[in-house]
Amino acid sequence: MEKKNIDWENLSFSYQAIDQRYVADYADGAWQPGHLSSDPMITMSECAGVLQYSQSVFEGLKAYTTKDGHIVCFRPDLNAERMYNSALRMEMPPYPKNLFVEGVRKVVEANTAWVPPYGSGATLYLRPYMFGISPVIGVAPARDYQFRIFGTPVGPYFKGGVKPIIVKVSDFDRAAPRGTGHIKAGLNYAMSMHAIVTAHQEGFAENIYLDAATRTKVEETGGANILFVDGDNTLVVPKSDTILPSITRRSLVYVAEHYLNMKVDERPVYWDEVTGHKFKECGLCGTAAVISPIGRINDHGTIIDFPSGMEEIGPVMKKLRETLLGIQMGEIEAPEGWIFQIV
Ligand code: PLP
Ligand code: COI
């Protein structure tokens, strides 16, 4: 299929409507068969559960072209599973995991002209999401829901691609103990808007959140998990019940152990380890961000500079990033089941 006439190399991380999206309704107490639609607009009750009480969950994954010309997605089964768990926590009827993956396949198949070519650095970002669509006025779950998947071609999440970024330690909390930090609910992002707008106004690319209960441990950023490399080249991965179980992070842990023979330490990471300069590299990881190096953290005026500096990504983060991207792009053999081939 002929590709769309797009300047693939210079795409930003932004939305544009593409030809087809997947839509399935939950009505009469059951998920109805899904279908493709060319209509990017949604009409719903003014009192829909999502509008009144933010009953929504979402996912993010990418479709892209591999070296040998296939169009694939990376581990969509894990997105299906996480969304299933997110829905349960939000008292929403979970979308069956096999249908989620089939929906992904249908959307990508119907939009191959929008999947960026191999080597462009761009991808087709897919956004599965689900929301309460029927009216609710007393605080309660909606009766009816809609599940959708749209795609949008994107470039790097942070301007500058893999240039190290500067982040700040947020004054705000992201996730309460026993709250919803471990699921991908829209409400987690709604409550981070003020913090991210403030951070951007101050010149920072992102916020680092500390744990809300004690503010002594590193949690994650607004849209990605955090990774560190210590003086022994061990990958140190913050572990917490209140952060999102990132698929990228879980994949990188596997890559570090099985492809790069690195030691991995998944444990609570204390903020004073960071201010005490225990780590020589730091980065954030996620579907949108892949791995973005953090060169500097500003903690209320105290500056933590990582030895990897502000010019380029550090050697360990670079190796992790290149190996993961190599696996995704079909240049390095992938572990069984990681690459979901669509075309
Ligand atoms: N943490 C948060 C808060 C996110 O929004 C995301 C993005 O999905 C991630 C982590 C990374 O998760 P994943 O690697 O599954 O995309
Ligand atoms: C992703 O990485 O897919 C995300 O959802 C992060 C952000 C765009 C919310």
Describe the structure.
There is one protein chain. The protein is built from eight helices and 18 strands. It is globular. The protein starts with 20 loop residues before the first strand and ends with a strand. It is an alpha+beta fold and 343 residues long. The strands form two sheets. Strands 1, 2, 3, 4, 5, 6, 7, 8 and 18 form a nine-stranded antiparallel β-sheet that branches. Strands 9, 10, 11, 12, 13, 14, 15, 16 and 17 form a nine-stranded mixed β-sheet that branches. The longest helix is centred in the first third of the chain and has 14 residues. Bound molecules: pyridoxal-5'-phosphate and 2-OXO-4-methylpentanoic acid (COI). 2-OXO-4-methylpentanoic acid (COI) binds next to loops.
Short description:
With 343 residues, the protein is an alpha+beta fold. It has helices spanning 49-53, 76-89, 97-110, 186-190, 193-201, 247-258, 271-275, 315-328; strands at 21-27, 30-31, 35-37, 56-58, 61-65, 71-74, 123-132, 145-154, 165-169, 206-210, 218-221, 225-230, 235-238, 264-267, 279-286, 290-299, 302-305, 339-341.
Poorly predicted regions are none
Number of strands: 18
Roughly how many Å is the radius of gyration?
20 Å
Structural class: alpha+beta
Overall shape: globular
Q: Average pLDDT, to the nearest integer?
A: 97
β-strand percent reads: 25-35%
- Multimeric status of the protein: single chain
Number of helices: 8
